[in-house]
């Protein structure tokens, strides 16, 4: 089942040149996206984020919890795009390292960040999406070291 988990994680990527901020900000675009991801989410799906430090914030359950996270995460950015760097199969979890690029309103300069997410699976569906502002936190969460 773990290779299927990796493929599900990959299916959430829209491409490195796609600005994802409008997807989450526009209700119509989000409704379309939510209808596509909802079947991939376990009924107990929950989205959390551990930013800098140790405090973990819950964004709620279901597709709307996923949207709430991305609205918060992309809030400061006029444009925001992501690029997968490495996906590691950990059985019922998938460690996802990415590069993210954001540009603030009024700026032409894009800022790059390196972060990670841990996707947890149950019964072939995503039951948890845990975002980390730093990779060390994600590695620690899955019992690995850099």
Notes on the protein architecture:
This protein is α+β, with helices and mostly antiparallel strands. It has helices spanning 2-11, 21-25, 27-37, 62-74, 135-141; strands at 41-50, 56-61, 79-89, 93-103, 110-122, 125-132. The protein has a 6-stranded mixed sheet. The relative contact order is 0.19. The model has no long low-confidence stretch (mean pLDDT 93).
How would the blueprint of this fold be written?
Elements: H1 2-11, H2 21-25, H3 27-37, E1 41-50, E2 56-61, H4 62-74, E3 79-89, E4 93-103, E5 110-122, E6 125-132, H5 135-141
Parallel strand pairs: 1-6
Antiparallel strand pairs: 1-2, 3-4, 4-5, 5-6
Could you give a short description of this structure?
With 146 residues, the chain is of the alpha+beta class.
How would you characterize the largest beta sheet? 6 strands, mixed
Average pLDDT works out at 93
DSSP helix fraction: 25-40%
Number of strands: 6
Radius of gyration: 15 Å
> What sort of overall outline do the alpha carbons produce when their principal axes are compared?
globular
Strand fraction: 35-45%
